[in-house]
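Morning F.,

Quick status update on the modeling queue. The single chain you submitted on Monday has been processed. Sequence for confirmation:
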Amino acid sequence: MEHITRTSTAKAPAERFTGDVYLNMIETPAEPARLAAALVRFTPGARTNWHSHANGQTLHITDGVGLVGTRDGEVVRVSAGETVKCPPGEEHWHGGTDTTLMAHIALVVGDGQGDGTTWLEPVTDEEYAAALDATR
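Structure tokens below.
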């Protein structure tokens, strides 16, 4: 057994996120296990870039209200206690609303070379505004 009492909070890298986002790693992929897990906190208006995961991603919302959107224009408003599963290869983004923070536990199974995430371009302000309008 390993008892980890706490992990350090780190600011998420600006090249992958818009706005202020903070991460606490829970688990990093290490053979033979390939699970990556993190507590991610988004301030109002903050969001990920577009991205996909080789083996999909599960997001469990722990606090606040947020948005999860896909390239085909589907957007869901999520709140504490809800879970969203993004299938392998699906390009998507997630973050807080314009007025509320959102925190989630992000779970991904790595591809043997890391966590299997492919990072893409930022979600534009226009795409974000459209997502907000679609979920009001």
